[in-house]
Specification:
single chain, 380 residues, alpha+beta, Fructose-1,6-Bisphosphatase, Chain A, domain 1, 2 domains, 7-stranded mixed beta sheet, 5-stranded mixed beta sheet, 11 helices, 14 strands, disordered N terminus, binds adenosine-3'-5'-diphosphate, binds magnesium ion, Inositol_monophosphatase_CS, 3'(2'),5'-bisphosphate nucleotidase activity, metal ion binding, 3'(2'),5'-bisphosphate nucleotidase, EC 3.1.3.7
Length: 380
């Protein structure tokens, strides 16, 4: 079925027909009416606004990053006032922009550490940052959030997600390590409807507007700040974060794996299939879902993510990136070639690793991954 032919705007008479039809016929059209026929325009606009406003808060903190801004969570990953501030702001903006919709958000951070004795100064700093950002934006009058409002906004991200209804999925700062280093990070926001990602926004404040390649080095001279956004069936666009016009982006059309360039995460990652594919170019190693954004515009051809055994991937680390790449013509799968399933709650339940590339290269890549995994297993 051609998905595009079902994209009907709400004012057209077919929609009345479809909703009448789906009320009387209890089958899959109901699902189609929520995930394909729906335009998600309001939600898309709200998501772009939320991710752009949150980016301003993050930029301000990154510029003035003080050692005391970096906390440590139990898993020892760094979490900064900007992670909390970004999460509070995105929740605030989405609730304000979509007041008539039930609100559910699955997000990375929670307020537990901020409620502990001794965290009052940090909480006050986060609250001031959130209020300053809202006030500079100017869309919400003279509203001022209290520290309790900020804690509640952070904790609205406690939803479990799942396969029913709508859930926002938020990583308030993805690539916190890159953020702390003054390098790449992303604010990643997606919407799930009945377990499927229907829209995604990636705000990448430090990503150059021009293509990056294997000699990429973070530099203050380049023009930076990209907003990627994608909606189901409608393609992927990139816009400078300063607001000028969006352009449609596409993944690379490269068919020969020897010419393909790789993105690598900075986590411990297996790099085994590269030799098999004859890849020559050195990998581009950057933090965060900026990798998905860069791949969606053809900067590189392949992103493999094979973390250590036992690591469970979270949906907020991939939901926005996944739709940004697939709507740009790419493919995202696990090591067995299955698409990622975002309907199982906050964790992705997948076979070993994540493979991101274009449709032409995917079969060779899956084969190389499979062979490498078999070789590795037989050598143990
Ligand atoms: N050992 C590990 N293996 C895989 N992913 C990890 C990891 N440790 C942390 N992560 C996740 O990897 C994300 C960053 O991805 P990347 O390595 O591509 O920059 C982190 O997101 P946060 O920075 O939001 O915590 C975190 O969720
Ligand atoms: Mg984290
Ligand atoms: Mg993350
Ligand atoms: Mg994060």
């Amino acid at each position: 079925m051609n998905v595009n032919c079902l994209r009907i705007v709400p004012s057209q008479p077919q929609v009345k027909f479809i909703s009448l039809f789906s009320r009387t016929h209890n089958y899959s059209l109901l699902k189609l009416s929520s995930s394909v026929v729906m335009s998600y325009d309001k939600e898309f606009a709200a998501a772009k606004k939320a991710a752009s406003i949150a980016a301003r808060l993050c930029q301000k903190v990154q510029k003035a990053l003080l050692q005391s801004d970096v906390q440590s969570k139990l898993d020892r990953s760094p979490v900064t006032v900007a992670d909390y501030g970004s999460q509070a702001l995105v929740s605030f903006v989405l609730e304000r922009e979509l007041p008539s919709e039930p609100f559910s958000i699955v997000a990375e951070e929670d307020s537990k550490d901020l409620r502990k004795d001794g965290a009052q100064d940090t909480l006050q700093r986060i609250t001031d940052l959130v209020n300053d950002t809202i006030s500079i934006d100017g869309s919400y009058g003279s509203i001022t959030l209290s520290t309790e409002d900020v804690l509640k906004a952070i904790d609205s991200g406690k939803s479990e997600g799942g396969s029913h209804g709508r859930h926002w999925v938020l990583d308030p700062i993805d690539g916190t390590k890159g953020f702390v280093r003054g390098d790449q990070y992303a604010i990643a926001l997606a919407l799930l409807d009945e377990g499927k990602v229907v829209l995604g926004v990636l705000s990448c404040p430090n990503l150059p507007l021009a293509s990056i390649s294997s000699d990429y080095q973070h530099s203050a001279d380049k023009e930076v700040g990209c907003l990627f956004f994608a909606k189901i069936g409608a393609g992927t666009y990139m816009q400078p974060l300063n607001g000028s016009s969006p352009v449609k982006v596409q993944v690379t059309a490269i068919e020969n794996s020897e010419e393909a360039s790789f993105f690598d995460p900075l986590i411990r990652n297996l790099d085994f299939p590269k030799q098999k594919l004859g890849v020559k170019a050195p990998p581009v190693r950057i933090d965060s879902q900026a990798k998905y954004g860069a791949l969606s515009r053809g900067d590189g051809a392949i992103y493999l993510r094979f973390p250590h055994k036992g690591y469970r991937e979270k949906i907020w680390d991939h939901a926005a990136g996944c739709i940004v790449v697939t709507e740009a013509g790419g493919v995202v799968s696990d090591a067995s070639g299955n698409p990622l399933d975002f309907s199982k709650g906050k964790y992705l339940d997948l076979d070993i690793g994540i493979i991101v590339t274009n449709q032409k290269l995917m079969p060779a890549l899956l084969k190389a991954v499979k062979e490498s995994l078999e070789e590795k297993a037989s050598s143990l």
